Amino acid sequence: MSQLYHNGQWTNDPWLHLDSVDDLVDQLDSGTDRRFLRPATLPLHHVGRALAIAPLPAPKIGARIAPDTAITQVAPFLPLLGLVVLEVDRFEDGRVFTQARDLRSVGFAEEIRVRGPIVADQIGALLACSVDSIDFTQQGFSKPPSQVTHPFSVRYQPGLGYGFDIRAARRNQLRNKENMS
Amino acid sequence: MYQYDTYDQQVVDQRVAQFRLQTERYLNGDLSEEEFKPLRLMNGLYIQLHAPMLRIAIPYGLLSSRQMRALADITRRYDRSYGHFTTRQNLQINWPRLEDVPDILADLAKVQMHAIQTSGNCIRNVTTDHLSGIAADELEDPRPWAELIRQWSTLHPEFSFLPRKFKIAITGAERDRAAAKVHDIGLRLVRSASGKTGFEVLVGGGLGRTPIIGVVIRDFLPQQHLLSYLEAILRVYNRLGRRDNKYKARIKILVKAMGGREFAELVEQEWAAIRGSRLLLGEDEIEAMKAHFRPPELPPALSLSNDELGDAHQNSRFSAWLRHNTHPHKVTGYRAAYVSLKHPDVPPGDITAEQMDVVAKAADDYSHGLIRTTHSQNLLLGDVAEQDLYSLWQTLDSAGLASPNINTLSDIICCPGLDFCSLANARSIPIAKQINQLFDDMDYQYDLGELKLKMSGCMNACGHHHVGNIGILGVDKKGEEWYQITIGGSVEREASLGKVIGPAVPFDEVANTVERLLGVYIEQRLEDERFVDTVKRIGVKPFKEGVYVSALS
Ligand code: SF4
Predict the structure, then answer these.
(1) Residues B388 and B476 in one domain
(2) Which phi-psi region, left, alpha or beta, contains residue B371 (left: φ > 0; alpha: ψ -120 to 50)?
(3) What is the model's pLDDT at position B553?
(4) What mean pLDDT is predicted for residues B380-385?
(5) Do B288 and A93 make contact, defined as CB atoms within 8 angstroms?
(6) What burial class does residue B501 get, using C-beta atoms within 10 Å of its C-beta: 0-12 exposed, 13-18 middle, 19+ buried?
(7) Which helix (H) or strand (E) segment is B360 a member of?
(8) CA B467 to chain centre
(9) What is the DSSP code (8-state) at residue B480?
(10) Is residue B221 helix, strand or coil?
């Protein structure tokens, strides 16, 4: 059963998650037309070589990074990546929230995914921080209802991925008032 | 006072609905104990020794009389008809049932209150000076800024799983009554040479196991950048704060390891990238927020000195209360009046539901319906006309709320300790009682002058013992309760951490040890010298000798 939550839907994962460049070579040598190979992620330290042997456009390559990886370490590859997976061991590890925002702030526009034992209650905050998809790794994870994944329709923090922006609304109110007077 | 609009109301209502569902999921097994723990903590719910404990937020220590009545009702309906005010200006109730907590939160939401982020590894309730808007040494009222911070930090999606808890304090006055220097972030309103208002920013202060005074990382932050700068600090901390050891996870450890200058550089780099973002505060937004905190219209009132009031009423208990429990107001003819929650027979900071109602009525009758909570676990009515002070005193006195002991030895600050807290090493409430019994002579206490005695039941330092003029810390020695004593801590003017006087003393010896310390002080003090200043002048040694040598002889 898929445990991937993407763009508000529970879907199957189109990506392969490989551990080494050899695994990628096996894929490339499998005889399948490269255009039809599944896109693949690798740990960050293999990504440079992976991109060298599998240049764009296909298959797409993604990077998997640990919570202590600075975004500056991934930055050189970002224009070539189709996915960055932020991997966590513990759901309390809040570094992924900042990593995701950092990725967007340096202009990465492709998919950002978090993978780990995430609690469904964290989904809303992850989406607000620009995460596109979440891969739940715990056994027997049951899909939660939307009240759990999206408890808030409004938020105080401006410029975030989802939720009605309270400050922007109030600013408009203030400016309208000013224009009226 | 800030009034919610429909958006604020939506936030708290949706938070209640979210927590109701989380509680249901936990109770029917859909959320594990481990998963539920951080979720409930983020909403102020602890599982304590005897029952859950719920910590209710009182943002920057400001309450309306309506809210106080609602709190009284909540303690009657769901608890044991009393509550406990904390050193961080919040209210704790010690006996709610887990199943009732969502209903309690719903009742709180009806009066624009909540328990959001009163615990957990997130940005906690922002605290400030209880004399905001009253004190003569104030540059500007910090509360509009505190409310802007409250909103920005409420349910901030990026900062809900920080390495550790995160506390922000803000002060607008010369004298730091908000203890800004011992907070993760301390903000002090200052004016630039060109007359612009902004903030001095300190980071990395804190008490707990590793008490540290914060370092200044920016002398002047223009006011419109407040939120972007805070966000920059939090991002650096969230990225780099330690997560491998919870005792080393506070920002103070990061700042200390890295050095203040290097930390400041990282913050500045981060800030450069976001300072022009939508976090920038508009002049109109700032003004709109300030409008919520305009001082009440105080009609001209007769200015009356303590002597005049004393002569008029001929009551020595009232005169003592006047001298010790009222504070000058910047408007002539008015004072701020303390409601003492330090009755000798009651645990410090505790208040019954009936007393809450009395305070609410007194606030309506004498102080524009507003109540403040203080870091010393007392309450304050901010704007009382001097001609009303006697009636107010009568009201408070008849409810046991007029002990004339503010800033004296018996104005003890004390955490719940082993009687309620599962983390405690030792009891603290019975120690407060022991001290109150030994020092029941108020004239002796007045002679000692200003003295802050602070006590914590364990290293977590909820009672802020490090910054007590006398600090008492409960320690566990082979299953027995012992107490380590420090002297010379202070936070208001020049912040300093107390120094240990020597080996810990047993439970029965704590009050006697305090008595011996005070004996040394009385012997050594110069005229009008406060206890803390004597310690600074002569050092710890004479006190140590006074305590341990005289104990042996
Ligand atoms: S200082 Fe320790 S004993 Fe006291 S309330 Fe805090 S955690 Fe509990």
Answers:
(1) no
(2) beta
(3) 55
(4) 98
(5) no
(6) buried
(7) helix B353-366
(8) 13
(9) E
(10) strand
Of B47, B53, B207, B456, which is best to mutate to test ligand 1, by the most ligand atoms within 8 angstroms of its C-beta? B456
Residues B313 and B273 in one domain: no
* Residue with tokens 């700042």, as numbered in its chain: B255
Q: Are the Cβ atoms of B22 and A121 closer than 8 angstroms?
A: yes
Length of chain B (residues):
553
Residue B115 lies in a domain: no
- Return the closest-CA partner of residue B492 out of B349, B376, B405, B382: B376
Q: Look at residue A149 in the predicted model and tell me its pLDDT.
A: 87
Element (H, E) at B21: helix B6-27
Enter the ipTM.
0.95
Task: Answer whether B405's CB lies under 8 Å from B442's CB.
Answer: yes
Strand intervals (E) in B228-357: 326-328, 334-339, 350-352
pTM: 0.94
Does any ligand 1 atom lie closer than 6 A to the CB of residue B49?
no
* Residue whose token pair is 């008032």: A177
Is B121 within a domain?
Answer: no
Which tokens belong to A103? 């990725």
Domain that holds residue B433: 413-552
Q: Hey, is the C-beta of A45 within 8 angstroms of any chain B C-beta?
A: no
Largest Cα span, chain A: 72
**CB < 8 Å from A in window 155-184 of B:** 155-163
Q: What is the reported pLDDT for A10? A: 86
- CATH code for the domain in which residue B143 is found: 3.30.413.10
Q: How far is CA B64 from CA A103, B58, B107, B113, B364, in A?
A: 44, 10, 15, 11, 9
In sign, the C-alpha dihedral spanning B108, B109, B110, B113 is: positive
CB B466 within 8 A of CB B211: yes
Q: CB-based contacts of B210: which residues, under 8 Å, 6+ apart? A: B247, B250, B252, B253, B256
Ligand 1 centroid to residue B530 C-alpha, Å: 28
